[in-house]
Amino acid sequence: MKTPEQSREKAKSRVRRKLIETASDLFYRHGIENVGINEVIERSGVARMSLYYHFKSKDDLILAVLDDAAEIRLKALAESAGEGKDPGSRLLAAFRSLKGIAEAEGFRGCAFINAATERANPSDPIHGRVARYKSALRETFAALASEAGAAQPDLLSWQLLILWDGAVTEAYIQQRPDLVDAAVSAAETLLRASLPQSGSGR
Question: Taking the CB of the first residue and of the last residue of the chain, which one, N or C, has fewer CB atoms within 10 A?
């Protein structure tokens, strides 16, 4: 049986989760600068005092939303990579997961790129948090590339990150999720060039 303290902590956790999910949806659909705290409060049904209990400011809420999205996306990327049968196919499977993102209802490009564009000053904590996520994404590619035996896994990881960001951006701008297929093909070409003797890893 849960103690009163445990019940209170669980309730606080639910409120925090509700705020993050509501803000995440609003920020993604409308932009972080176009959504105010009042809208988050109204849409979530959470009291103003409760919001400020969990987040001291709107920027704190934005940072929490980005951290939550980063955790979810990196976990999903790892799960997609796990579907591959060998190191090379794991890397390509991870890259193919972008197709699902681009095909999702309400897709509006990369939430992290969008946030960095709105907070363009590199010294802004929100811009910095985006850079941290992109570094983690690149490190994931580097680890998979190294596992696959790429001659220059660090270089390949940068190439894949640039390809990833370009694909997600163009898929949204052109409203064509199928453009991700071209990016996957390019990723396979890059991997093949890195593994001239072992092929693409399919």
Answer: N
Q: Which residues are CB-neighbours of 197 under 8 A, at least 6 positions away?
A: none
CATH class entry, domain 1-55: mainly alpha
The architecture in CATH of the region 66-194 reads Orthogonal Bundle (1.10)
On whether the CB atoms of residues 81 and 142 are closer than 8 A, the answer is no
Q: CA Rg, the chain, in Å?
A: 19
Structure tokens at 139: 């490190």
Which of 60, 51, 40, 63 is CA-nearest to residue 12?
Answer: 51
- Convert the pLDDT of each residue in 150-179 to its tens digit: 999 999 999 999 999 999 999 999 999 999
C-beta separation of 70 from 137 below 8 A: no
| pTM, 2 dp | 0.90
Which CA distances in Å does 17 have to 24, 91, 93, 183? 10, 32, 30, 34
Q: Cα(128)–Cα(141) distance, rounded to whole angstroms?
A: 20
